[in-house]
Amino acid sequence: MNNLNDSISWIAAMIPVIIIKTVFIQTDNY
Questions:
Q1: How far apart (Å, rounded) are the C-alpha atoms in residues 21 and 1?
Q2: Distance (Å, whole) CA 17 – CA 9
Q3: pTM over 0.70
Q4: Among residues 5, 4, 7, 26, which one has the least CA distance to residue 15?
């Protein structure tokens, strides 16, 4: 069950990174 906890932690850590990347991509388009 520890593998599931690691996956949740990894997803939670990646969400802000994805949001920051999308914001930068949108600003580059302007």
A1: 31
A2: 13
A3: no
A4: 7
pLDDT for the residue numbered 27: 78
Residue 26 is given by DSSP the state H
Query: pLDDT digit string (tens) for 1-30?
Result: 678 889 999 999 999 999 999 988 887 766
How far is CA 18 from its chain centroid? 4
Cα 21 to Cα 30: distance, rounded to the nearest angstrom: 15
> Alpha-carbon distance 13 to 9, whole Å?
6
Residue type, 6: D
What range defines the domain where residue 15 resides?
1-30
Considering its fold, how many domains does the chain have in total? 1
